[in-house]
C-alpha cells in the first residue's frame, strides 16, 4: 500500500521578527484525515506557525502546500477559500444567534452574495435556504442543534467556543486549524469538545491541525505530533513516541 500524499506540507519555513527567529526551517506534513498536534513550550513558535498556515504571516523562506497548491504567499481569504479554515484562541462570539454566526461562515461561499438575497432574487433566496440547511447540519454535528436559534450571548463559554469551531466548519474546509480549542473550558466541556472534533473529522473527512496545551487532549486526539522548541521542530511522531523522546523531555523540563 502506498501512503497517500500529504494534505498539508510545511517545508523549511523560517520566520524572523527583527533579530528573533520565531520559526527556523520548520517542516512537517499532515496526512489526509488525520489530527496533527503542534505542541511546545511558550514562545516556541506555535501561533506563528498557525499564522503562516493561514496567511497572516509571510515566511522569509520555505513553502506551505495544500495538496498540489502552493499557499505560501496567498492572502488569508484566498487560503480560506482554498480550504484552510482556522479558529482563534481568544475570539469568542457574543453577537447574534448561533444561526447568524454560522451564516457568516457561509458568507465566503455564497455566490450570489447577501445583497442579492436581500433583494429577494429567487436564485439567491434558494441559495440562502440551502446554506441555512447546511449550517443547521453543521450545528448538529457540533452539538449545537438545539441551540441553533439561541442568542450566542446566553450560551456557556464552552458552547460559544464550539460556535467558533462550527463557523470555521461552515467554510467546508479540507484542513481545520484549531488554536487551543479547549482553553478556558472545564473538564466536561473539554471531553465534549474532544468528542466533537473526533466526530467531525470522521464524518467530514477533513484534517485537523491542533495547537493545544492540554496534553491529555493531545494524547487522546492526535495521530501525530510535531514538537516545537525555540522555533525548531525538535521531534515528530505519535503521541507515545514524542512523550518518550529525550529531547522533548529536556525542552519541557528545561534540564
Ligand atoms: P507560541 O505560540 O508557541 O507561544 P509564538 O509563535 O507566539 O509562540 O512566538 C514565538 C516567538 O516569536 C516568541 O519569542 C514571540 O515573542 C515572538 N513573536 C511572535 N510574534 C511576534 C511579532 N509579531 N513580533 C515580534 N516577535 C514576535
Ligand atoms: Mg501562542
Automatic annotation (TrEMBL):
Family annotation (InterPro entries): AAA+_ATPase (IPR003593), ABC_AA/LPS_Transport (IPR051120), ABC_transporter-like_ATP-bd (IPR003439), ABC_transporter-like_CS (IPR017871), BCA_ABC_TP_C (IPR032823), P-loop_NTPase (IPR027417)
> What are the protein's UniProt keywords?
ATP-binding, Nucleotide-binding, Transport
Q: Which Pfam families match?
A: ABC_tran, BCA_ABC_TP_C
Q: What SMART domains does the database record attribute to this sequence?
A: AAA (SM00382)
**GO cellular component terms attached to this protein's record:** plasma membrane
Give start and end of each ABC transporter domain.
8-255
Among the GO molecular function terms of this UniProt record, one is: ATP hydrolysis activity
Query: What is the protein's name according to its record?
Result: High-affinity branched-chain amino acid transport ATP-binding protein
Organism, as annotated:
Streptomyces glaucescens
Amino acid at each position: 500500500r502506498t501512503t497517500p500524499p500529504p494534505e498539508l506540507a510545511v517545508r523549511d519555513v523560517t520566520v524572523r521578527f527583527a533579530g528573533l527567529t520565531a520559526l527556523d526551517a520548520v517542516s512537517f506534513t499532515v496526512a489526509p484525515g488525520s489530527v496533527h498536534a503542534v505542541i511546545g513550550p511558550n514562545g516556541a513558535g506555535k501561533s506563528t506557525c498557525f499564522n503562516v498556515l493561514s496567511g497572516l504571516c509571510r515566511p522569509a523562506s520555505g513553502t506551505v502546500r495544500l495538496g498540489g497548491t502552493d499557499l505560501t504567499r496567498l492572502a488569508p481569504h484566498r487560503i480560506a477559500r482554498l480550504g484552510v479554515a482556522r479558529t482563534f484562541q481568544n475570539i469568542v462570539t457574543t453577537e447574534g444567534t448561533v444561526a447568524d454566526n454560522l451564516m457568516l461562515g457561509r458568507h465566503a461561499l455564497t455566490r450570489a452574495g447577501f445583497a442579492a438575497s436581500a433583494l429577494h432574487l429567487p436564485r439567491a433566496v434558494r441559495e440562502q435556504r440551502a446554506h441555512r440547511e447546511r449550517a443547521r447540519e453543521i450545528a448538529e454535528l457540533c452539538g449545537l442543534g438545539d441551540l441553533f436559534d439561541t442568542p450566542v450571548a446566553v450560551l456557556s463559554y464552552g458552547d460559544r467556543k464550539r460556535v467558533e469551531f462550527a463557523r470555521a466548519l461552515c467554510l467546508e474546509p479540507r484542513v481545520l486549524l484549531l488554536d487551543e480549542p479547549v482553553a478556558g473550558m472545564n473538564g466536561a466541556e473539554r471531553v465534549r469538545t474532544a468528542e466533537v472534533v473526533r466526530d467531525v473529522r470522521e464524518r467530514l473527512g477533513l484534517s485537523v491541525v491542533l495547537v493545544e496545551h492540554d496534553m491529555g487532549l493531545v494524547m487522546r486526539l492526535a495521530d501525530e505530533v510535531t514538537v516545537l522548541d525555540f522555533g525548531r521542530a525538535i521531534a515528530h511522531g505519535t503521541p507515545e513516541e514524542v512523550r518518550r523522546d529525550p529531547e522533548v523531555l529536556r525542552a519541557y523540563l528545561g534540564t
